[in-house]
Amino acid sequence: MTFDKEYFNLGYLDMLSYKDSVIHRLDPRIKVLVTFIFIVTVVSFGKYEVYGLVPFFLFPAMLFSLGDIPVMFIMKKVLLVSSFAFFIGIFNPLLDRQPMYLFYGVAVSGGWVSFLSIMLKFFLTITSALLLIATTSFPGICHALQKFGIPDIFISQLLFIYRYLFVLVEEAMKVVRARDMRSFGNKGKGMTAFTGIIGTLFLRTVERAERIYQAMLSRGFSGTLHALKPDALTSADALFLATTATVLYLLRVNDVVGGIGKLLVRIF
Question: pTM of the predicted model, to two decimals?
Answer without folding.
Answer: 0.79
